[in-house]
Specification:
The chain has one domain: 3-Layer(aba) Sandwich (Rossmann fold). The chain is built from seven helices and nine strands. A five-stranded parallel beta sheet has the order 6-7-5-8-9, sandwiched between helices. Helix 1 packs across helix 7. The radius of gyration is 17 Å and the shape is globular. Bound molecules: adenosine-5'-diphosphate and 6-phosphogluconic acid. The site of adenosine-5'-diphosphate has 17 residues, from helix 1, helix 5 and helix 7. The site of adenosine-5'-diphosphate (ADP) has 17 residues, from helix 1, helix 5 and helix 7. This is Gluconokinase.
């Protein structure tokens, strides 16, 4: 079973497995022998730094990195490239694909993985959360990269070679449902600093969270 406690240090509610499922039976194991496998979902609107942070974090943690943008069907990419925001219906299959990719990474032996996915709405995050039901040692955590619309507009304008142009930023903020404190599995990171400081801050917060869980 998973139990939840609030941590002042990492700012998230942490879950600690007290048991694992083996062949349909629940077997209790000492906490210190548990190795948690994390699915770290790096979220936030276009331009918040998902790819830049995820790439850095995956290297630091030595985990595979799944770039969400690579799994959009061509129809979605064409819409976005033409400045047309995606609808819920455009997104469901994509979200499921990303969840499956993350689970497959763990099934093929990875100790965890890092995934980029804007996950703008709570119900999108809920689709991904289902991966945490795979096994008691699998934990889904969201890293929400928080920034103002104005700042992201500036960053997307300056970004080259991407189908998502600055005309899409406003619609991303219209769709955005910022995670609140009832979403206990979210680490919120302010991304107004320079890239290196944000990459380090996000990694620090993730490591802090892992440390809390191991206690
Ligand atoms: N903290 C930051 N400070 C300055 N520029 C940043 C920062 N984070 C990302 N960028 C730049 O902003 C653009 C968008 O970042 P990116 O990682 O592609 O965001 P996303 O994947 O969320 O759309 C890129 O050109 C990136 O180099
Ligand atoms: O790099 C970016 O600009 C974003 O990652 C971008 O590509 C987008 O956010 C989604 O992949 C589209 O899906 P949503 O409309 O659900 O954000």
């Amino acid at each position: 079973m998973l139990s939840y406690t609030y941590s002042e240090k990492s700012g998230v509610h942490v879950s600690t497995p007290s048991a694992i499922h083996t062949m349909g039976k629940v077997q209790s194991i000492p906490k210190h022998e548990t190795r948690l496998r994390h699915i770290w979902i790096i979220t936030g609107p276009a331009g918040c730094g998902k790819s830049s942070v995820a790439d850095f974090l995956a290297k630091r943690l030595n985990l595979p990195y799944i770039e969400g943008d690579e799994f959009h069907p061509r129809s979605n990419v064409e819409k976005m490239a033409n400045g047309i925001p995606l609808t819920d219906d455009d997104r469901w299959d994509w979200l499921e694909t990303l969840r499956n990719k993350a689970v497959e990474a763990l099934e093929s032996g990875a100790e965890g993985c890092v995934v980029t996915c804007s996950c703008l709405k709570r119900r999108y995050r809920d689709v991904i959360r289902i991966a945490g039901r795979e096994a008691d040692d699998v934990i889904v955590r969201f890293v929400y990269l928080r920034a103002s619309e104005e700042l992201l507009l500036k960053r997307v304008k300056a970004r080259k070679n991407h189908y998502m142009k600055d005309d899409m930023v406003h619609s991303q903020f219209t769709a955005l449902e910022e995670p609140d404190e009832s979403e206990m599995d979210v680490i919120s990171v302010d991304v107004s600093g320079n890239l290196a400081s944000v990459q380090n801050l996000a990694t620090e917060r993730v490591r802090g969270c892992m440390e809390e869980e191991s206690q």
